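[agent] plan:
  1. take the single chain provided in the ticket
  2. run structure prediction with default settings
  3. attach structure tokens to the ticket
  4. add a short note for the reviewer (M.T.)
[agent] executing step 1
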Amino acid sequence: DSDASRETGEGGGALVVSPSFAALQDYIDISSSLPFTPITLVFQDLKYIVPNPVFQRAKAKAYAKAQAEAQQGQIDSHAAKAASSPAVPDVEQGAVGASGAPEGAAPSPPPIEARETLQLLSGITGFNEPGVLLALMGGSGAGKTTLMDVIAGRKTIGSISGTITVNGHTADPRAWSRVMGYVEQFDIHSPAQTVIEALRFSARLRLPPSFNDQQVKAYVEEVLEIVDMLPHMNSLVGSPGVSGLSTEARKRLTIAVELVANPSCVFLDEPTSGLDARAAAIVMRAVRNVARNGRTVMVTIHQPSIEIFESFDQLLLIQRGGFTTYFGPLGANSAALIAYFMSVPGTPQLPAGFNPATWMLEVTGGSMATVLDRVDVDWPGLYAGSELCRENVARAAALIDARGHDCPPLAVVTQYAMPFGTQTRVLLDKFNKAYWRSPGYNFMRIGITFVVSFIYAAVYWGEGRIPNPADIGSVQNVMGIMFASSNFLGMTNLMSVMPVVGYERVVFYRERGAAMYDPFAYGLAIALVELPYLLVQAFIFVPIIYWMIMFEPTPEAFFYYVIVFFETISFYTIFGQTLVYITPAAAIAQVVGAGFNFLFNVFNGFIITYPDMPTGWRWMNRAVPPTWILYGLGVSQLGNNQEIIVYGGQSSTVSEFMRTKFGYYYYMRWWIVLILAAYIIVMRVGSVVALKYWNFLRR
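[agent] step 2 finished; step 3 output follows
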């Protein structure tokens, strides 16, 4: 146990002395079926600065106010010119400085809206060693999660300075992400997976290819035992608060998903958040087991119970602004921590039976009960000048020297653990199961297709047969059914896919942060899993309407209609996915999708045909994909029709009418298939590029 590694040191605390690497490796080999590299993590003088959103808003308001005042000044200019005599003040004014404050007054710190940037971390130094459970604590907004995100390399905005070393070498982001597990505060999982499927998915994509499937399965079962999830291994994850796992079991699954990657270092962001005392104890027992296996473990935690607090080995306490208040060991029954704070005169005694964590936060002004009270003691300043701080700085430097000499730098040959083909196969297996277990999505769109096909067939019964001589009404009826059906079912697919991919996008962000797979493998897998469902839709809809409406009774025309309709619903489905990937939320994507549908309907050549369209807008007709959908369906039924049609006092064949009135040429039919295929491919590639580079997860 880690208690054996605690030795009393100077400055009212104790130094945690790690066991030798050889002894630690023996311990690891006994307690884990897969070997891993022990990690000593050191971070020195970490600072993190971000743009101040309050300043940006205030700047925008000030600009708007200045514009309004300028306009008002122009209005009042004549009145200003009329004032011919200088104004004399009624009362003598005191002298003021450049800032507008009375001379001699002490300068006050600028208000928050006057600061262009905010410093969230202010020179934090610390370390974490194998087998040691480190707690990050502080009041709300102190910077606990910010510090962890900076160390883990997960910040997407702001400026970071300082050094982060792994085993004595500067952390390489790609290698660092491969040996690290990050358990986020919010438990984000695919709801249609079972517990064991979620773990095998993570393990297979993150463990090296040298581990065969049997080793992976055995290790997954070992992790299930570590986190006490064996009874739930075949349970569906479900949706939070709706179905599936309880909150506490979901949290343990989140931990397990990271553990099956066999990480050397594990970060956990508030793993007990939202849990009752019993559930929190179960989760922390699992976390403690992880540390006992020789891994480096860092946990942010808010206000733990006495039992949970004293399960930690070390504590890093920070205050708002990212200042270190305390970094050192807890000691048995938190003795080292209590001794440090009690060494400061005026510190209130810890009441008997009182929680040391709560007492510590109240003393330093970090609890909700004291966050608004004035704290007279400069705790960060006291720590910066303490013997404990000097010991920690020296220890950090010594660890870098020792580990840098004993351990080679972390190195990875490839960005991802598994090759592209394996990534695609594993993702496809996941999506296949998820789609099969999602009747609300797939059965709905297939059911709607079935019902709508019979409605259209009943309303337009026999309208596909063009009489001889023909009239414009019969041609418009044929074009109308093709326009209405393709647009309605296309938009049904577009809207119905958005909530599905919207939730999965959040899961994708988590999995991408763990470097599980290439976004192009993700895009290929989700394209392949849609194919059978889209084919089912096409082969339900087309045969029903085709023969009941009595379209062109030739095999070529029938199968051509199937191909174009399949491309139609494929395009709309992929377009819906892409809109989700390029907008912040699925609800916004639906609004944007409705806007695009308006443009499609205006410019697709049905309401106003291409020859009748103003010349300056014809490029829009050729740019929107539904133009080619309607073009393809139209020429398949009418482009080669030789029946006579009379219109405007003139007569011609239907095929000639389609050329002059709609601009549709029969020879273009197979080119249209290729054009629609190109739209689908470009849209699919665009969706993957959006996933790869368009990130709405700001940290």
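[agent] step 4 note for reviewer: The first strand starts at residue 6 and ends at 8.
[agent] ticket updated
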